[in-house]
Amino acid sequence: MKRVMITNAIVLLLSVTAMAQDKKVAVFDPAGSVENSIREIVREEISSIVVNTGEYTVLERSLINKVLEENKFQSGGLVDDAQISEIGKRMGANLVFVSSLTLMGTGNYYISCKMIDVTTARIEKQKTAQTLRGGNDLIEVVKKTVNEMFAKTVEATPQSKSVAEEERVLPTNNTPASLLVANGRKVFLNGNQLTKNEVRAKMANTDALRLYNKGIKRNKGGNAWLISGLCLIAGGAVMIDVDEDIAAIGLLAGGAMTITGISLKLTSKGPVKKAVDTYNYGGRTSNVELKFGLTGNGVGLALYF
Q1: I need a surface site. Which of 109, 188, 246, 296 has the fewest CB within 10 A?
Q2: Residue 12 has pLDDT above 70, yes or no
Q3: 84 domain residue, yes or no
């Protein structure tokens, strides 16, 4: 009985670890008879919105094209959900975002968007809409539709809501070419990923740097806890045939450490995204220091400006 319980614990912990991995999304070209330039704009707008939820990692376009070419498919021609799911698996994606643009007799477009879980082929999110001004408002309607699909995710993320408020009231002195983009813990400038030192150099002497370092430190701590926990789980599994009591202790301790590590890693993206938003919207210079030492009133903490 005890061995069965230990085995079940191992399966549960491994399942939790697998579920906590980054949600990778493959965004396909929209299906439909539209110009390639419009197709690319729609795809990029969708990718941008998915990335900025802070909940997903969008796969590189080059990887998607490579898998599609190897399997003799065109992303705009994938219409069967099971087929889409299978191709998504080959890309290493957890989810696939597909869309279609249908030109109606009125000159307006009918828009369909859905996100499919590649493991179950189940539709996770879906929304439809149509343009109202002879198709001239296509891009605006696509953006509105996709934003509405992820509205709950954005509202559930505190930093995303604050950023939306800042966009309404805070001006930015940065040009579009100088804006940073966060994708998980990665930071990009003009489509190129920056190293950690390059990010720190750009954020020097601003509050953004403190937030960025917080996110990176939290991720490192999460890795340490996660690796230690998995090692204890492996050790506990090995000890099942030697001493079930010791094995149980190792599994429980390893499970707790693994869950702690996963939690730290999952929450490490928020500070990085907030750091990028702070930088883009003119993060103020941070010259305040908190020191412990002698003050006019004795020994204590003092703020230095």
Answers
A1: 296
A2: no
A3: yes
Which 8-state DSSP code applies to residue 125? Answer: E
**If you write DSSP's letter for every residue of 136-205 in order, what string do you get?**
TTHHHHHHHHHHHHTHHHHHT-HHHHHHHHHHHH----S-GGG-EEEETTEEEETTEEPPHHHHHHHTTT
Closest residue by Cα to residue 96 from 110, 111, 72, 75: 75
Using CA of residue 161, residue 164, residue 168, residue 174, what is the dihedral sign?
positive
Q: pLDDT by residue (tens digit) across 244-264?
A: 778 788 788 888 888 988 988
pLDDT digits (tens, 9 = 90+) for 24-48: 899 998 988 788 888 889 999 999 9
Domain membership of residue 15 (yes or no) is: yes
The closest alpha carbon to 47, from 183, 165, 240, belongs to 183
Regarding whether 31 and 2 lie in a shared domain, the answer is no
Domain of 147 in residue numbering reads as 23-160
Distance of CA 131 to the CA centre of its chain: 29
* Residue 125 to residue 153: CA distance in whole angstroms: 11
Question: What DSSP designation does 300 have?
Answer: E
The closest of 119, 76, 115 to 96, measured between CA atoms, is 115
> Quick one: 7 and 49 in the same domain?
no
Rounded CA separation 203/206 (Å): 6
